[in-house]
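User: I'm curious what two different proteins look like when written out as structure tokens. Can you demonstrate?

Assistant: Sure. I'll show them one after the other, since each token string lines up with its own sequence. Here's the first protein:
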Amino acid sequence: MQGSILFNSVEFISSINVIVCTLTSIFLGVCISLAHSYRNHSTRNFKIALSLLPAMIQVVIMMVNGNIGAGLAVAGAFTLVRFRSATGNARDIVNVFLAVAVGLSTGMHELAFAISFTFIIIIILLAYERFDMWKPHTVARTIKVVALDNDDTLEEVTNLIRNFSKRSRLSQIKYIETTNRVQLAFNADIKEGLDESSLLRQIRAITNNLDCTISDTEYGRERL
């Protein structure tokens, strides 16, 4: 037997098929990238990568179609890839998987399926953003307060933060021995539309103008 079954190609791919499938992949990749940019912040490099990813996946699928040996070689190569970029949010990951699915479809010459599937998902994603579905209506904040070591003062600060937030919890309390003060750290979901500067002024009024900061927080960040 000449050659090995592992390296025998079953299907001949014509140049016309490659060109049509590649152009379709690039077009759908650009559509995915544009949809991803709607009401969303991402880098220019990520948008470019997202638009080209379907074409890359498509070429890989075409090259290994019916070739078991090449498929095993590609699988081995992918195990060597290490992604060192920061983890994206859930929407980034969904769009990456959509781009991969498009590349798989066009690589198998299922252009009609790839086009229809892409636009169905894009319409659903845009509808979610357009109508603000599942919007939390809160803002995650970390509030750090320095106050006198006094039960009444601590209770007033805690109650004030609770009134301004939908959910809040005391995540840290630290006693400052040299000044007889305590440092409090709260994780709070501030109600949307409330004036955070007003909250800051009221806290400082309770603590006799001691240090107080309100900052963004990892608490409540989206996970996939």
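Here's a second, unrelated protein for contrast:
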Amino acid sequence: MGFRLKKLIYSLIKIRGKVFFPFVIFYILIAAHIILTIEPQTFHNYLTSVYWVITTLSTIGFGDYAPVTASGKAFTIVLYVTGIGFVSVLIGKIIRSIYNIEKLRVGGKMKYTGKNHIILIGWSNKSREAIEEILKSDSKIDIVIIDHLEKSPLDEDRLYYVRGDATDEETLNRANVSKAKGVIIFAEEIFPVIYTQKDPLLVDGKTLLIATAITSIEEKMGISIHVTAEVVNEKHIRYSSMLRSTNLFQPRK
């Protein structure tokens, strides 16, 4: 008996998520039909028997209904035994699902589905300062960061992270750019070290590519997205006339 029980529980654990939940529902319906057949005088209708099976499988057992015949009690024992296996597997799957969702969220692989949010493109000290200011000034607005970091740089309740290339429309759509209140593009930081120094022309070129990708989405959807973009070279500000709803600015030195 003990070996068969272990084998049953092991088989339940092996069942994949797509099969497990339909199987549980089917099992409840069949068990309800069996107990109603065994004791129709105790469980007057099918709904009552379904209610009793669910409370028994979950080991709650309110006691408002209970089998009185030997056959009914024997069937109850079977439900109690299998209920332990079902609940254990169900809890395990729920915990695993929560872990996977959190892993996707922190890793920037989930799509943001909110609206009227602020999108910050590019992670830097300036991004951090901007986030602090926005969260302080508005207690309800969400912020979505787009960058290539392996995981979210900050852990805040109203802060979301999308990992990817901001010049790619697919990445922008995962940040739900069409429903955003505004987009801020920060230029990549240029460090005064030979091996890490970046060409200002390339830095501004990437910023303009991102702004162009957003403009493309605007034109396709017939909407207007307010964009504020930082450029390193003041000469590149003139390109703002070529972009819809985009304001280019140079940071103060």
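A detail about the second structure: The first strand starts at residue 118 and ends at 121.
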